[in-house]
Actin-related protein 2/3 complex subunit 5
Amino acid sequence: MAAVAERERSVRSLLHKDLTAALRKALENPPVGTRDKAVKDKNTDVVLDVLGAAKDAQLAPAVAALSAEESDALMKYVYRGLAKPAPNGALFRWHAAVLERGGVGCVVRAVADRRTV
């Protein structure tokens, strides 16, 4: 949980300066190896904060700067966010941007991977 709290502080400081750097930091070392739901939920909240803060014009450049692994992790977080009962318009825009860059394979990897975020 301490690692997620540190990541949250770093992401919040980057968020107002550089969205792409904040996104990459939020996606860094996702907690796929833990079974602790609180850690996964907190990390998801950090990523969703970044996604919610982005303007439409920032989506494509941010996604283009991601590696394939980061894109797959982002798609997992998009689906995790879509599962929450909240307004999801921004998440659908992120989904479209990641799908455009990563193709259908990105969706398949995000859905089929047993290592959840």
About this structure: Helices lie at 2-15, 19-27, 37-53, 56-64, 68-82, 89-112. The domain at 2-112 is CATH 1.25.40.190 (Serine Threonine Protein Phosphatase 5, Tetratricopeptide repeat).
